[in-house]
Each structure stands twice: as structure tokens, then as C-alpha cells.
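Protocol step 4 of 6.
Sequence for Alkanesulfonate monooxygenase (Paracoccus aminophilus JCM 7686) entered exactly as in the expression construct, tag removed. Do not edit the line below.
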Amino acid sequence: MTLQYAPSEVRPHFPSPADFPKSPLARALRQPVLLGLFLPVQAGGWTDSTLPRSTDWSFDYNRALVLEAERQGFDLVFALSQWLPKGGYSEVLNGQALDSFMATAALSSVTERIILISTIHVLYGPWHPLHLAKYGATLDHISKGRWGINVVTGHRAVEHEMFGWERIEHDRRYDLAAEFLETVEHLWTETENYSYSGARWQMKDAFVTPKPLYGRPILVNASGSAPGIELAARYSDIMFIASPGGADIASALETLPAHTARVKAAARAQGREIRTLLNPLIISRDTEAEAYAYADAILAQHSQNGPMGRGKFDSDAQAWSQHGKKPDPYAKVGGNVYLIGTPEQIVERLLQLRAAGVDGFQLSFYDFAPDLAYFGERILPLMKAAGLRHDLP
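Step 5 output, C-alpha cells:
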């Protein structure tokens, strides 16, 4: 079986959950924009500040956030996956973290409607496509089609080294991720035993039951590079993107239209549709002055380490390459972009980002529990009035 497709070659079609009108993903895609929550399963959330807050990495805290997001009508939640040495990035971002796969799997039993996305480094450690195909099909049934995978390949050398390897070269990682996804899709769809011998994995007479309810679980990947975009175009339902220009809204609005158009064109060349998902960190209060005072208080107690650990752990990630290259103190509050202002100003920015080709927002906050409650009370109704969200039956 050929896994390396030429750029002009269309990959054979496997069904997506979006192809099934009754699937949870198809339901979510009836919204004008997707709405998600980026869970703080890691210490410090997304911001390296000691300003007091409730944000906590514990399962109970994150379960409460998910239940509140589900109550507000959010479509999905993500959680990151990280493998860091003792001490993590800093005193605040100290490496304490739940495993994304285990945490979101557990959340499937306490939720009813919201989609749960597990971030999984598919190239690390003992993962075999047969393992994930079986585990994923099981979770698909437990969640009734509400589970998916954010496929990541690992950009920090230290993470690969924890598993006893040298970091795999950037583009090669995406070749291997394609091999992994190709094999799990076969395992989810083949009605007979499946054998395969490839560059990284082998299997003989493999078979997976149960089969997923809607073709396969939801597939997501995050990248800003050409190989990452090509992987998304061929396999993913959603691509998690970053602003190519930086975290400030002006740079994001300048650079995102071409970036989102490129992603969608690559998918359409494969005869597929893909949705783009951006991660804004929202700092909002009733007045603009209050919002910026809150942001300034966060920054006043900020350490020197950024949320991605730049300067401490070597990374070859390309999606964040422009972040931090120009003076912008507010970029340290976190997120692919930061949005600071009144509820009305936040909604106006979301409308602008939607016009720039962003199909959904995976939100994060500084103080998650109260800021999520404020979002539901003050911002979400304005999003509905602006046509960004609907109340679905």
C-alpha cells in the first residue's frame, strides 16, 4: 500500500463523521462557528503569572469546566498533552498535568452532548495503530460518537528524549503520522483481517471491533507547516491553527485570511472540507479600562518564561514562529491570539476573525471558572445576536 501520495494525487476517500447527518460532529457543524474550550489540565493553564486565580489542573476542576461548557452549549473541548522533565517550564507552569487521553476518556462518562478531543503524541512510546484503533473505537461507542483525536507529532526535543529517542526530523514526523492515520482508518473500516508492513509499524491479520458509529472518530491536527497542512488536508476534519503573524489581533487579521484559504484549498484539492479552529485567550470585563487593568495585573506578576517554554526547551514548531518576535507585552497572557475588551468588543473581534476564514474558537481564559461563567452571561448572548451561534434542538 502506498502511503506517500504525490501532491497532485487524491487520496482514496474514507468516511468522516461529518458525512453522517446524525453524528455529533455534523450537529456541531450546523453552527455558524464552532465553540470549544481548551481545558487547563496542566498547571498554570496558558499563562505564566502568579496573580491569584482558581485555575487548577485537577480532574474535578476540569470536569466542572466541561459541565459548564456543555450547559452553555459549547460544541467541544480539547486538552493538551505534554511530557516534560521535573519542574516543567517555570514555577507556575511546573509540569503538573493530567494525561489528555485518560482525562477526556473519563469525561465521556459524565457528559451527554459535548465532543471530547484527546491530544495524543502518536509517535511516542508504545503506541501502535492497533492499540489506538481499538481504544478509539471503544471510546467512540462509550461517548456515542463524541470522541476524537488531536494528532500531534512532538516538536520539543526533550519530549522525544524522555522516550529514549532523538527527535525525529520535522517533515519525517508528518510522514510517519500519515502512516499511523492511514493504518488506523483501515482498521476502523476494514470488514476483514488487515495486514500491513510499513516504515514504522507492522501488523498481520489485525481486526478491530466494534466499528465506530459514524465511520471513524473525529480527527484533528495542529500545524502551520506545509507537511502539517497536507496531513490535515488528507485526514483531518478540523485543523487547529495559530495566527501566522503573531498574537495581537491586527497581525492575526492581516495574516489569517491567506493562511485559512491555503488550508481549505489543500483539503478541497482532496475532495474534502476542513474547518479551522483558533485559540483566543479572552480577557473581558464590563468596561475596556477594567479589562486592560485585569490584563495588566496578570502581566505585572508574569515570569520570564513564555507559555510554550521558548528559551528553555528546544522546539522546531513552525506555527508559532512569529510569536514573540516583536515587542508586545500582552502576548504573554497566552493563546494563539489574545482578545482584551468589553463583551461587545470581544464579539466584534470574533466576527472579524470569522471573516478572516476562522471556522471556530477554542477558548482559553486566565481564571477559567469565573471567566467562563462571565463568557456565558455576557459574551455568548451577544454572539447569538450577531449570528455567530444558534440554539440548536
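Step 6, annotate. The chain is about 35% helix and 15% strand.
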